[in-house]
Amino acid sequence: MAWDFRYESAKVIAELLEEQGFSLSKKFGQNFLLSKHAVHTIVDALKVAPNSRLWEIGPGIGALTIELLRQDLQVTAFEIDHGFCRILRERAFKDEPNFLLVEGDFLKTWNDIHVAQGTPAAICGNLPYNVGSICIAKLLEAQCLPAVMVFTLQTEVADRLMAKAGSKQYAPLSILSSIDYSVTKLCSIPSSQFFPPPRVESTVVQFQLLSQPKVEPERRKDFLTLVDDMFTQRRKTVRNNLLAGSMGKLFGKEQILAALDNAEIDHSARAEMLDIPVLLRLLGALNL
Ligand code: SAM
Fold it and tell me: Alpha-carbon distance 254 to 74, whole Å?
């Protein structure tokens, strides 16, 4: 590969940005990863065979992309910043046949690429802090489920993804991600390993596809509606959230209260106490 760029040097990155007249956007979470060790941890965790199709969200100027291409992977990269796109297209990976750049907002572009390419073998990215959880939720909701995904995320978002019932971080996103994946922490990356350093700490997480989803496909839609209802207001009891939500409207008070009893759920419990098997029991008690 002709592009020989020192991605680990903040000074070299700053010089490139200055030469190109770029200013970094906080809105797009533009913090470049300097740590080679972190890059290798991400690439190693992807465990995909050479020639596999992989998506990278937010390549920036290519710190991770270059290692992915060195592994002989076919990389489809989604980048919103037109200036970075120009560098990727005209300099970094100009003559690289395995590099396909999709210019624009991932949230708007990914669906067409999914239709054209199908689900990739893996997805990775050092995700922009503000849109990281939305990108992951969209993929899971649309059932775009590669065997493995590895993301660098704001630690708070990573904790929510990995949270178990009973913890403060447990949220609809924790449930959504654990239906299809086992999500584990690979490492933390201190702010000093980015240029410019963000205010928040980062965590690298690996998603590994389960051999079977925890919710049967035909019950998934109702299950997610139930979860949405349960978490409408975190401080409210399960009973009150359910009665006020779409399930309450569908079934009425008597049936909801009877279903809670049949599923052996305390009416005053909070949604964050209930794991997937208990939620499935409640769904079953509603004959869904
Ligand atoms: N991958 C590079 C690295 O690790 O050095 C850059 C990571 S930086 C945290 C996030 C990247 O995502 C930036 O290049 C930013 O422009 C891009 N980005 C932000 N929002 C995006 C979106 N909605 N769709 C595609 N790319 C986005």
Answer: 56
- CATH number for the domain harbouring residue 201: 3.40.50.150
Q: Does 79 lie in the same domain as 39?
A: yes
pLDDT tens-digit profile of 145-162?
999 999 999 999 999 999
62 lines ligand 1 (CB under 6 A): no
Identity at 57, one-letter amino acid code: I
* Phi, psi torsion values for 139, nearest 5 degrees: -60, -45
Short-list 73, 82, 23, 83, CA closest to 53: 73
Q: How far is the CA of 153 from the centre of ligand 1 (A)?
A: 11
- How confident is the model at residue 235, as a pLDDT? 86
Per-residue confidence (pLDDT) for residue 130, from 0 to 100: 73
Protein residue whose Cα sits closest to atom 11 of ligand 1: 58
Look at residue 28 in the predicted model and tell me its pLDDT. 80
Range(s) of the domain holding residue 276: 217-285
Say how many Å lie between the CA of residue 58 and the centre of ligand 1.
3
Q: Name the nearest CA neighbour of 127 among 163, 154, 160, 92.
A: 154
The predicted pLDDT at position 129 comes to: 74
Kindly give the parts of the chain with pLDDT less than 50. none
From 126, 134, 135, mutation site for ligand 1 pocket: most ligand atoms within 8 A of C-beta:
126
Nearest CA owner, ligand 1 atom 18: 58
| pLDDT recorded at residue 27 | 74
